Structures are given as structure tokens and as C-alpha cells.
Protein 1
Amino acid sequence: MAKSVMVAYALWAVGGPLGLHHLYLGRDSHALLWMLTLGGFGFGWAREFIRIPAYVGEANQDGETERKTRPTGPPPVSPIRFVGQVCVGIYFGTVALIGLNSLSFFYLIVLPLSVGAGVHLVSSIGQQTSDLQKTFTTCLITSPIFYGSTLSPLPISLAASITAAQNRRVKPPRPPGSTQKLGPRLYRLGLAWLAFSAPLAYCIFHNTTATLYYLSDCVAALLDMFWFLPWLRNVLEYILLMPYRLLCVITGGGAYEEAWKKVLEILLKEYTEKEKEALQVLSLEAEASLEEITHSYRELAKTWHPDHNPSKDAEATFLKIKEAYEVLLRRHRPHRFK
């Protein structure tokens, strides 16, 4: 079925930053790029206002016409495509730095492959493509030179973009009747989008958890400063919780309050790095109860107390055990979520 310019423009206007018009025209690589970058960071989407008729013309070509019109040699160099390769490579590398930097061999394998994937995605837009193997090889060779640097996505992306431009070629024409069904195409695009967004979503959730944990500790510490003036402590608590109380009034309170407490408990359930270290110091598992924490602390304190242990590092070890116990004790504070 022939594609319509009016339909393409309508999809461009309604869901252009999400690549709906490219999905309609069968340009899946372009659609995926727009999904991951919100229309090429907005600039690519705006530029396409004058490019859509050409895209529709390409989509409406049959196999024979496509063979006649496509160039036989390498396609001409496009400065816009090259800039897009560099920018998207940096973008993919930055996302990897945010969400995957805790993985082993990150700077040697994960980061260069992420940058290379971004560069190759831009290289594969439209009727062009490049040599994926050479692009990845360039990234893997360049990455160790800038090992550990937060700016490493820039030189890696630049080197990969130059390699992709040098190895650019025209895609082979589609065989007659090779139109793919929408379902499998959406499935592949969904998997690619999930692979890109899942690490980033985990990082955002993890940082949100840590932030909530930090704010909770700050509020509790602030209120504990006024233990000697209970009335002042209650006033401060009321003021600090005023936005939440207003929300309860608007939404009906009651069940919402209990639901919110449960959400907070789930969010704050994950141990921070400091608490993980404290668990290791006290030789405890993550599921240890307050009674187990106290028992382990007392046993270790008896063993390492300077009055009973003559070794040189007894005092330092005892202080470390005491600090670990205080860290875990704060986590199990009964009124933390009230």
C-alpha cells in the first residue's frame, strides 16, 4: 500500500519525537533513534518538516525502481549524519556511565560497545549503513587510552564516527514482497528500547532510594536535636510534614497515608553502601533482625574491647564495630516512617 504524505505529516506532528512517522514509513532504525533521543533531541524532528516528502518517496519505491535509483558506489559524506553519529555516541556513552558503571570491565568493554551502538544506529538510518565490526573494533581500541575518564565517550565516539564514515555503504535493495508485519517490528523495537532504558531506570530508582534515605535521616536528626523540648519538636515535625498533610486532606487521607508509608518502607528497604559495610563488619546477613545485630555487636565488642584485648589494632577495630552498630541501629529506628 502506497504511503501518504499527509498521513506522514500528521504522525510527524502528533508523535514525531517518538518516531511514529518513521514507523509508518518502515524506517525502523530511524524510529528507534527518535524513540531513544526524543526526535534527535528535538533538532532532527524539526528538520524533518522539509524531509518527509523525500522519505515518503523512498518508502513508495518498488524493488526494481529502488535498484535503478540507488548509487552503486559509497554514498556521499553527510556532515549532518557525522555530527549525529558523534552526538548519539556520546549520548549512549553517557547513559552507560550513569546506569552501568558498576559493571566489571566497564571502561574496556561496556562503554565502548555502548558508544559504538549509538554511532552505528545513526549510520544505519535510511538507505545507508556502515561496517559494525570495524566500528566496534575502533571503540574497543580507543577506550583503553582514556580509561577511567568521564569524558571518554567524546573521543571514543569521534573515532568511531570517523571509522563509520570511512566504511559507509549503501544498503542492499529490498527483495520484492519483503514487507514485514507490524507486530514483529514493534516487538524488536520494544526489546531495543527496553535494553536501553532498563539500566537507566534502575539507576534513577536507586538514586531516588538513596535520596529518600538521606532526607529521612536528615529530618530525624533535626528533630532529635530538640529532644529536651518535646513541644518544639512536635511543632517542627508538624511544619515539616505540612505538605504531606495537605496532600492527605486533598486525596482523602486514611488509606493513602498507610499506602504512602508502605511505599516509603519499600523504597528505603535497600541497604546503602555504608550499611553494607556495617553488615560485613558485624558478620551479618542482609536479613538480620535488630536482636541479631545487637547480639553480634555485644559478642564482637567483648572480643575487641581494648581492656580485654592487648593487640595493637584492638582499639581501632572496636571503634569500627561500634560505628557499624550505630549505623545499623539508625536503620532500625522504630519511628522512622512516622
Protein 2
Amino acid sequence: MILRAPTHLIVLVAVSIGAKAAPAPTGQVTDSVPQSVRGDYGAPSLLGPHNVPMEEQNLDLLSPPATDHGKIDNFKWPFALSHTRLTTGGWARQQNEKQLPIAKDLAAVNMRLKPGAIREMHWHNTDEWAYVLKGSLRISVIAPGGLNEGVSYVADVNEGDLWYFPAGDPHSIQAKDTLPEGAEFLLVFDRGTFDENDTFSLTDWLAHTPKEVLAKNFGTYPETAPFDQIPEEELYIFPSNSPPEDVNKDLIVPNDIDPEYTFTYPLSKIKPTNFPGGTVKIADSRNFVASKNIAVAEVSVEAGGMRELHWHPIQPEWTFILSGNARITLFASQSNAATYDFFPGDVAYIPPFIW
């Protein structure tokens, strides 16, 4: 893969189910119970309490390959272990440096919206990159600077598509009713300490601003009644009607936008590049100009195939498993190496200059 030098790299992996067998983990399974055995090493039958379902998903930790050695910080986080924030319109869960301390430069949120539900207008002090897992969404963003200074942008994205919001640009997200379940997506932020609960939200701001100040700001003073319905606390994710089919009806103030600098990218429509063991699609600032700090490679690997030995000298890699099972080995020089097993919904984080 050749990527224009981004600050960060995201890899989305789908492992196909085919006739070829994937590399077998070294751990043994006897009578459906995983064993800490590798040839003459280890001992069968764990005698104390143990979590069999967890061990079955981590056989290469229970019984590592002989090539594993030394110390490698944990580089795996299953989203299934993240705390989920529930709302009337959907839910969200996150992975940041608190859950995965090795992830110094990137954090992520997995979010689900019911049909019509809205992630209210908000903004961050980090860039936001997104990938649609299921369903369709309507996004809107106000660009206070850059090539589209002063314009509002509204667009639809579908499964497999991307969006990118630079730090400080206010934006909102709404699920369409393309699927009866709504939509689900990934958000990735270019700072490991990012916390979804520390986001700047519009209703949170208005709820903590005196009505008299709002009335003066919007030109209704001394009349404050127009602001009586402002929520007393942040709405965050809330239910609503599905947006109109015509995007232009949601564009309150029509304006021109630079066609070379849009905030969405139809990765789902890009033809993949074929290799003997799978395919790859790439989106970086060459073909997705707005995405200045984050590039993505959507990789499909055939069962038994592999992404060849490689490393990124200056960019960290955040990997998410879309489907199938995989395993990743990291080598950090000085005989330090570790192998982990991954399942759908798992995150892997590889710091720069680690093989």
C-alpha cells in the first residue's frame, strides 16, 4: 500500500471465509476446554477458576507461539468490554487511552442511532474521521475556515462511506430510515485522550446560558419566551423523524461549496485493488482532500491469507475487525514479540516503528 503521508493510519479488516484454513493458534483445546500447552511446554487442565469463553478468544495468549518473547504492552481492546452510554435515540461506547493505554494518538467511538435519531450539533478540539458500518446517515457541518470558509455542508453517507470533520467545525449526525434498525458507525479521533463525554454540545451550552443573554444574542430581548423550551441538560442523542429524502431541503441557507473539498467520501463505490490474498481500498488526502490527518486502508483478506510483514516509521495504526477472525503479531525489537487473536468488533493499536 502507498499512502500519502498522514499523521495517522486506520486499517479496516474483513477476513473472508473460504476453503483455505487460517493459521491455527498454538493453544490446545481438549474436551472443549482450552489448555496452556505447546508441545512439551506448559501443563494441561487449568486447576483453578478460569473464564473459558475469554480463553477461547485468546488462545495465542493462553499458549503463545514459540516466537513470542519478552514484553509487549497490550494492544487489543474489544468494544464488547466498553461501557455503553444509553439514550432514547441510541447508544455510544468508546475506546481511548484509559481502556487501551498503548493508544497514545488515536481514540474511537462506536455509535448507533435509531431511524431518525440525531446526534445533536457539537464540536471537538480534535479531528473526527468516520466509517459507516450499517445503514445510511445525513451529516451536516458548518465550516468556519479553510477552503469552504463560512459555508454549511449537508450530505448523505451509506454503508462503507466516510466523513471527516476538522477540529472545531460544528456538526450533527442523523440516521435515515434506509434500514428499519437505523444506522451504526465508527468515529476515530486524532488524540488518544479524547473522551466522548467531554464533547462541546449545543444544548449543553444553551442550557447553561441565561435566557436574557440568549434573548439579547438573538434579538428578542426583553422577550425570553422563545427560549422556554430549551432543554435543561444536554440531549446528546435523541429521537426524531427521519430527514427528507432531498438533501437540499435540509440545507436551510443554500451556498456554494468547493467540489474538490467535501466532507464525505464514497469509499463504498471505489473499486478495490486486487492482490493474490485479498483486496484493498485506500482513502487519504490525495483522493479525500479534507482528510488531512487520517488515512484509511479497507483490507479484505482471504482465509489463510495475510498482510505481509511491514511497519510504519512515523504513523500509528488503529485497526478494527469488520468480520472474520484474525491474529496479529507485533515485534518491537530486542527480542520482544507478542501474538493476539482478534474477532469482529475488536480494536488493535500498533504504535509507530513497531513491526
